[in-house]
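Entry type: protein chain
Record version: 2
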Amino acid sequence: MNLSTYSNITQTKIRDSHMIAVTKNVIVVALYFSINYINGTLVHTFFKHEIFNENPRYILFIHMVINDMIQLTIAVLLNLISYIFYTINVSVCCILVITAVFTTLNTPLNLAGMAVERYIAVCNPLRHTQICTVRRTYILIGLIWVLGAITIFPDLFFLLATEPLSLFHSTIYCSRDTVFQHPYLVEKRKFLYLVYLSFVWFTLVYTYFRIMFTAKATGADARKARDTILLHGLQLLLCMLMYIVPLVESTLISLFPMLLNDIRFTGYIFVQILPRFISPIVYGLRDQMFCAYLKKHLLCDKLNEKNKRTTQSS
């Protein structure tokens, strides 16, 4: 079954009523602006203070925040398109899907990089400044994006080689499952997901348990280290829902076909929205130094606004 046939089938799916569709999109857009406002404030604070630009920990953190902002923007855009237009041009869809896959896969790899950086800082502090330099941090970020390219671009080349060029001028319901739905690509995706899942879980479990043991051995606050491990584990678990939710969705849809849209919307919230809400809390607001500069920034903005109002009233 080629993509054009699959596209026709997707158009026969049950669609939400007008009121339900509006309610769902209002929820998504409200969450989008709330999360990206917080993330935008974190990004502004980072670039405003030079102290963060020289620290690999904060560079990796802000890279994840910017990556999440891009991913969330694409995810919300695809959701709105599915309700407003339902189908869009295949070429435009490919660009959006590739960007979404890039940024979605970047997050777990970024988590692994942050875990390694914290492991070196706690377990090998004397060599931390030599190993974790700013230059190497940016190289690591570049490597993360290269791994994302290796994951998705072969799918695009396969599509170009197996489908007629006229396909890219047609319209389709835009999702990765409808664009890259060849059985070979599905199996390749499952294998790569398993590799990513195993690598990132192993990295985080190993590094953070070593951090916890080191904290106990040196008399540091073991409770804080343990809480950090639990929060990072929750963040990783939410990120890895992208590998699990499709299987859960297909099972639930087979059992409750009339709830197809509600099941997919719930999965969408848990996979695309919720992890981006927890990231700034776990990695930004809990960090004492970053939080202190953030409060100072917000306080200055409030004072400036107050002074501006006073000047205007006088």
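Comment: Residues 183-217 form the longest helix (35 residues).
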